[in-house]
Amino acid sequence: MRRLLALSLSALSLLSPQVSAAREAPPPPPAAADVLLPPAPPWLGALDALYDRRIRVAGLEDRRFSPEHWWNLAGRLATRAGGFDTRVIGRGAEGRPLQHVSWGRGDTRVLLWSQMHGDESTASMAIADLFRLLGEHPRHPLVQRLRRGTTLHLLPIVNPDGAARFQRRNAQGIDINRDARALASPEGRALHDLRERLEPHFGFNLHDQDVGTRVGDSSRGTAIALLAPPYNVAREVDDSRARAIEVSVAIRAVLEPYIAGYIARWDDTFNPRAFGDLTAQAGVSTILIESGGIEGDLQKQRLRKLNFLALAGALDAIATGTHAGLPRAAYEQLPENGRDWADLRIAGGTLALPGKAPARVDLLVEFEDALLERGGMILEIGDLADSQARRTIDASGLYIVPVAGEGADGNTEHRKIARHAPAYFHLSRDPQGRHIVWTLARDVDPDRRVPRAD
């Protein structure tokens, strides 16, 4: 298979040291050896370098931010002098504004929306970077092509109330991405009405997915998953969906030099409640981008940059029409998202509960924030030697001891160690918990991720 055109060494070094450290084996060769991947765009290396110097927006280094903070940073970049127009088109359930930003004067209309799940903020960070590119670099050849060829319409942070809490659902408890049919939420109605009014040619549905998701049946975590959503249950490919597949191939061409082997396809089962599927059904060539995780990228800053570069590549292909004719097989050969691994496995410890016989067990733990290992819950207890996890702590020779605390009556009581209970326990060299070498109290201490050696 023809290899992608090489980038400069500085461009290739962006992610490769961190990603290769997470690899357990080199990625396998593609399943279809006769498929020719398109080359990476010739401008990629230069844009990569420019991003680090003059595009990345400061102040979004933590992926938990309020919608007000995001608009304070990004809104100042989306100026009329830079060619932007910003208008409030609705409000969330708690009254926070939903703001539609437009830019460009081309004939091809593109609608992009982000963070309809409030705790999925990677693309919102990348959109702020996109604003800076468009507004502060008007003479950049890529910006000039986008201005001539497209009119961009963006609805960043579709779920501002959820973003304020860093939670999936809106303030009413509604999953906005499952509200495309009922339109019960004000946020869902605003996005639907915007799409109906604009009648865009292309749509970008921007999300984050579980960091435990593997690429196919491999042990590699999915960094980014792509999907050209179906418009019907039969998952047929009409001209509109074919264009979305071509743009997905253009995105793959951008990402391949950085995360080859870590790109997957989202499951394309039709969902009649989902915005991506119903947007495709409305005749819009729709592309879903799901940001998973890269081990060590705790705040998804590397994935933020990959999102920015992927959007730049996709929009350039749309503006110039160079997506036309890209091989559909280069999309279809991507493995689907596979198994979802647990976040942490405690292997081979001895469970020492007050008044009960000791038992040799493994524990599986899942975190609300998997990358930062915060908000742990116990998934399972027992013989879990065949269960996979992103990280394993060998507890052989150690005792799993419940954390003691003060009860409501003032007496000492122990936290439960049980399935679906919050994860509070020590690893100790003795069953009484006098020689503790590691503690999990919902959150892993970043300064002590593994037990002490002494």
Structure notes:
- The chain is elongated.
- The termini are far apart.
- The strands form four sheets. Strands 1-2-4-3-5-9-7-8 form an eight-stranded mixed β-sheet, sandwiched between helices. Strands 11, 12, 13, 14, 15, 18 and 19 form a seven-stranded mixed β-sheet that branches.
- It is of the alpha/beta class.
- It is 28% helix and 25% strand.
In the sheet with the most strands, the strands line up as: 1-2-4-3-5-9-7-8
CATH topology value of the largest domain: Aminopeptidase
> What is the average of the pLDDT values?
92
Name of the top-level CATH class of the largest domain: Alpha Beta
- Termini separation comes to 51 Å
Structural class: alpha/beta
How many distinct helices?
A: 12
Strand content: 25-35%
Shape by Cα distribution: elongated
Could you say how many structural domains there are in total?
A: 2
CATH homologous group name of the largest domain: Zn peptidases
- Major beta sheet summary: 8 strands, mixed
Number of strands: 19
Report helical residue fraction. 25-40%
CATH architecture call of the largest domain? 3-Layer(aba) Sandwich
CA radius of gyration is: 24 Å
Low-confidence stretches: 1-33
